[in-house]
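Comment thread on ticket #2218

A.B. wrote:
> Attaching the input chain for the structure job we discussed in standup.
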Amino acid sequence: MDQLVENAEMKNAAEKHGSDVAVAVITTAGIYPSEDEFRRVDGDTEIEDVLKKAAKKLHLTNTDDWVARVDDNEVNVKHSFRQEGLKGIVEIEWHKREGGGGASGAR
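C.D. wrote:
> Ran it. Output below, let me know if you need it in another format.
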C-alpha cells in the first residue's frame, strides 16, 4: 500500500514539474533574473507576480503604463502563464507602450 501512495506522489510531482515555465523578463534596464538564467515558475503563477519581482530587482519605478509582450503578442499580466497559453521557455519583453507616431500637422 505504501508503494501505491509513493508512486502517486511521484506522479503528482512529475505532473506539477511538467507545468513549470522558465521565464526571463527583458527590459531596457536589464534582464531578470539575469542574462544567463531563467526563473522557473509554476504555470499557474500570474505573470504580474514575475513582473513585480523583475521591477524590484531591476529597480524599476512607474511601470503602470508598461506592456508585456511574448513573441510580439501582448499578454494580459493579470492572467497566469497557463491562461495565456505560455509554456516551456518564455521571454517577456516588458516596456512602455510604443507610440503610434504618424505625421505631424505641420505642412
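A.B. wrote:
> Thanks. Noting for the ticket: Confidence is low (pLDDT under 50) at residues 5-16.
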